[in-house]
# Entry
Amino acid sequence: MDNNNTPRISAPAKWIPLSYSFAFILRSKRLMAWSAFLILMTMAFTWAGYLLTVDFVDGLTGNFFLTQPEAAGIWGWTKYIGWMVVKWLFLIISRIVAFYLAFLVAYTLSSPGYVFLSTTAEKIHAGEHFEADAALNIKGILIDLFEGLKIAGFGILVTIAALAANFIPGIGQIVVFLLYTYYSALMFVDYPTSRRRWSLGRKINWLRSHSTPSFRLGVFPALVSVVPVLNIFLMAMIFPLMTVHSTLNFTAIEETMQNKKREQTEK
# Structure
């Protein structure tokens, strides 16, 4: 039987589990050191941005929450209770917004570091088969920062859409969760695609074309993001792991796609 005439069928990309990605980091001192550095940097940027944002927002309110109304009589107690409700709502909402904005700033500023982590993980995993793309230089770092800024801005749009979706009865929360799941996947796919200098549109199209793997990449960070207050620090802790995990699966999918294209060309 002539094997050359036998059609070859490309199998789908084998999914790399999160446990493998975690063990992959532990086996490399370089990845472990860089991950620890990025965790500390992300936390520092987030905390500094949070404090600055809170100080700015509190400064806008002036003395409104410093001088409480006198609780005398029915009208006085009504004003006092209303003042307390507004105060606590303001504190809760302003702190949540401050954490989120601080995280977006930290994400943008640390994006070149995560691109480097992603590239290093891909290089170690591919070995001699690693194909270098754009060189790491000042221009590349500025591009990475700009791409991180675009995705952070896109995240603000996703948040606005999620707030609107919350008012949809029944399916609103499901829509919100899906929005955050695929946005989380976009954040992590951004790193391996940045060294390839992909545009934001191309990254989003990749998510659409690979909706199931994208969901699997984004569902764990989306679940972590719903933890109140602690979500920012938990996200900082898992960011290096998810960066490596997403990089390994992204490259596996892309390699499978390239093999399929070569097989179609050879037919």
